[in-house]
Every structure is written in structure tokens, then in C-alpha cells.
Design goal:
The protein is an alpha/beta fold. Helices cover 34% and strands 26% of the residues. It contains 6 helices and 7 strands. The protein has a 7-stranded mixed sheet.
Amino acid sequence: MTYCLSSLTGIESMKLSRLIYLAPIALVILLSQTAVFAGDASLGAGQPLPSLDIEAGGEISVSNNNISVNPWSSKSFESSGKVQVVHYVAANRKVARQNKPFIQAIDEKQFSSQELGKTVIVHMADTLSLARTLVVNTLADRKSTQHETNFVIDDNGLGLERWGMKRGSYAIIVLDGNGNLLFAKDGPLSDIEIRQTIELIEGHMT
């Protein structure tokens, strides 16, 4: 069925405009419901993220120019109380650029750390172990300027199996304040997906 806007009444025009406005939001919901992981079990929107416990590697901290790496667990997401954006990426410069547009779009929004949590997990499954020190130092440098972002190194690439990720890829995961899945994609986000994912994030902020 097609409509000629000039033939619509004022009320009908308002209803149609509202439908057009809500269409992108509905598409975001649809995308989040169909985004799944292929790890231990397929997951849809609203289901908890399978826990990932990293002891070979862990979260990077910097204090008085001293770098430490401590065991890390994704269970921390379950009680964060705020939307979380998780990056799971191979330790490869080319791969790291895959979702640069999404990162820039998030930065432009200037969300506060009370509104949005950010965690970057870099796995070493596709990288020589000799490069580990360089990766740790690079993440430590980023931590020094991005204090509110959590940087984690996954030496054994446990997330690849646990979360069903592909090697040599860059995944974006969005969780609600209870650690439940809102959206996930393993690979570069398109311009439309970037816009819709940001709308999804904003829609779940308290």
C-alpha cells in the first residue's frame, strides 16, 4: 500500500511521521534480538553473557609508572549497573582499525563513566608470544590517558571459544547494567549499525 502525503489528514500524517520516526528504533530491537554468539550456547538479546575468566593475562593497571597485570573476570559486568561496551579484538594493527568509526562515534557522544562502561580485551591467539610485552606496554600507555576504560589482555584467546569469536576479527558487544546481551557483532559495524547501536545504548541508559 502506498500513501500520498498530500491526501492524508492531519492525524494520519502525524501517525505516519511517528511510524517513520520509530522505524530505526524497531530495527535496532530486531538486530539486538538476532545478534548471537556461537560459543557454549547461542545467545539472543536479554540473555547473560557467558562468563570469561582470564588468569593467563588479565586487566592492566598503571601506578607510578609501574605496570601490573591481574586476573580479570567478566562477572564484573553483572553488577555494574550501567551499559557496557566490550571490544574483543586480535592483537593486530590492521584488525584494530576495523571498528575505528564506531569508536569515534562513541567518543563524540562524550558519555560519562557513570553512564557507560568500556572494556577493551586484546587476545594474543593470532600473535607471537614475543610480541606480548609490546602489546602490554601499548595498552598501558592507553590506560594512562583513558583512565575510565578497562584494558585486558587474553594471552590464550579464551574468548574465541567461550564467546564463539572468529580469529583475526574485531567484535563489539553491548550489555545492559546486569550483564545481559543487548547487541553483538563479530566484525566491522556498518554506518547504519553504528548509528543504531548508539541509539540502543542511549535507550538503555538510566
